[in-house]
Amino acid sequence: MSGQITYRAPELLINGQWRTGRHAMTVAIVNPASAETLDRLHLANHDDIAQALQAAQQGFEAWRQVPAFERCARLEKGVNKMREQMEHIATLLTLEQGKPLAEARAECAMAADLIKWYAEEARRTYGRIIPARIPNSRMQVLKQPVGPVAAFAPWNFPLVLSARKIGGALAAGCSIILKGAEETPASVAAMVACFAAEVPAGTLQLLYGVPAEVSEHLIASPIIRKVTFTGSVPVGRHLAQLAAKHLKRITLELGGHAPVIVCADADIDKTVAQMVVHKFRNAGQACLAPTRFYVDRAIEGDFMDAFIAASHKLVLGDGMDPITQMGPLASARRLAAVRDLIDRSVQAGARLHQGAAPSSGFFAPVSLLTGVTPESPVIQEEPFGPVATLTTFDGIDHALNLANQCAYGLAGYLFTDSARTILKVSDQLEVGSLAINGMGVSVPEAPFGGLKDSGYGSESGIEGMEAFLETKFTHHCA
User: Fold this and answer.
1) Fewest CB atoms within 10 Å of the CB: 1, 152, 222, 469?
2) What is the distance between the alpha carbons of residues 331 and 285, in angstroms, rounded to a whole number?
3) Are 23 and 43 in contact (CB under 8 A)?
4) Where does the pLDDT of residue 6 fall: very low under 50, low under 70, confident under 90, or very high at 90 and above?
5) How far apart are CA 60 and CA 48, in angstroms?
């Protein structure tokens, strides 16, 4: 019992029914703040997946016939339910993922906003009329749902990253099988339940299982017409290969290692205040987290002192405690990976500035590494934890060169009052999203996606809706 909620692992949602997975394996769901097991999750077996696929085809045939106006209304009913249950969903998320309850509430609200935006966009899925080439004829372009979707969402922001896929697919008229993260199943199931009753059976389904078994089965099926994945680069590469083998469209939102360019004319106090909050949100387990700080040499000392002071003041603890500002990492595996990356980077010459952390659970202290080179492990690899680096630059061209050497290209941040610098960085920084004097790189109405190893395709915005639509040309002659 915690936070007035008794935690129970959810069931699978297959063809409109919640039922226990029939795989021989179960997995433990662990509270990362205490390392205690909350419950065990029953996974989907081969037959469960096969039944979900058949139901997805039937659900698609029914849901695609529902007019866009009604699809919008039904999804908005689900959004209202989700908002009514926000405290319950957020508490589940904190228990199983570790983030502070305030962050869990914010994630739940953002997920609801995402689906609401997609619901509204369903009514604006426009085609177009093309001037005819011959008399008594009409040429037009139609937008139609692509078909059943296989979606794979991770554990770090399980509500938001599932909502992007659920909202886009359902608004477009597709059915969707969501493979949620086994580490955070109950919060996602609670969100899915808000929408399941509003759509035909089979339209929205939820599976948990052995990841390789589920992905290979779903992507190979001729029923699935679209794949969407958020997660690590290695898994993204593997799924891209599977999708290519079966000629399936795929959207990939992979890792990030976001650069932050801080110019000499930046407001240091404002920059540090925003970046400390953004960097250590969710204990740094965010693909868009600001991580590689490139600071003008003229302000290096002042910036570093301010950043270290502000980050070391953060209160680490159980996410259910209202005074907690940063929770634990999500798992023992993540804690070990962060420690290993720091150790290897220090051995390669980096200097470590580190705060304190609780000894129980999977807590990692906030860490700043200075004296790093482009070859340092912490520059080459995404930390995905409460770890940042600081490197000085001499001139904006130097900063851009350092920032663009990284294989990732998801999000970036710039702090300056120079219009010339803003123009240059906006044009030349190799990222999919750039925030200038702020931290807003992801909103429902704008596309979010990456360059280089950060993947391809976009979610959110009209581009995100387009990912779930086919384009058909018709030429009608009298």
Assistant:
1) 1
2) 11
3) yes
4) confident
5) 18
CA pair distance 432, 94, nearest whole angstrom: 29
pLDDT (mean) for 12-26: 97
Q: How many CB atoms are located within 10 Å of the residue 107 CB?
A: 27
- 152 forms bridges with which residues in the sheet? 179, 229
Residue 27's identity, in one-letter code, is: V
- Reported as a pLDDT band with limits 50, 70 and 90, residue 1 is very low
Local structure of 404: helix, strand or coil: helix
What is 291-314 written as a DSSP string? EEEEEEGGGHHHHHHHHHHHHHTP
CB 44 within 8 A of CB 13: no
Question: Which residues are registered as beta bridge partners of 17?
Answer: 14
Task: Catalogue the E-assigned strands of 187-268.
Answer: 204-207, 226-230, 249-253, 258-262
Evaluate if residue 73 carries a pLDDT over 50: yes
Task: Determine contact, residues 23/12, Cβ cutoff 8 Å.
Answer: no
Q: What share of the chain is helix, strand, coil (3-state, %, to 5)?
A: 40, 25, 35
Beta bridge partner(s), residue 261: 294, 414
Lookup result for tokens 């795989």: 23
Nearest to 209 by CA among 37, 24, 5, 430: 24
CB 269 within 8 Å of CB 280: no
H-helix or E-strand spanning residue 213? helix 211-220
Residue 4: per-residue pLDDT:
60
What six digits make up the tokens of 82?
Answer: 């989700």
Q: For residues 382 and 371, what is the distance between their CA atoms, to the nearest angstrom?
A: 17
Q: Which of 121, 198, 253, 466 is catalytic?
A: 253
Catalytic residue (choose from 108, 287, 459, 466): 287
Record the pTM: 0.95
Residues 6 or more apart whose CB falls under 8 angstroms from that of 168 comprise 118, 228, 459, 464, 465, 467, 468
Rounded to an integer, the average pLDDT of 163-174 is 98
- pLDDT value at 3 more than 90: no
8 Å CB contact between 164 and 459: yes
Question: What does the pLDDT look like over 279-322, one tens digit per residue?
Answer: 999 999 999 999 999 999 999 999 999 999 999 999 999 999 99
**Where residue 5 falls among pLDDT bands split at 50, 70, 90?**
confident
Q: Is 253 assigned a catalytic role?
A: yes
How many Å separate Cα 431 from the centre of its chain? Answer: 16
The yes-or-no answer on residue 287 being catalytic is yes
Pairing assessment for the beta strands 408-409 and 451-452 based on DSSP bridges? antiparallel
The proportion of the chain whose per-residue pLDDT surpasses 90, expressed as a percent, equals 99
Within 10 angstroms of residue 65's Cβ, the number of other Cβ atoms is 10
Q: Residue 42's beta-bridge partner residues? A: 26
pLDDT > 90? residue 93: yes
Q: State the chain's mean pLDDT as an integer.
A: 97
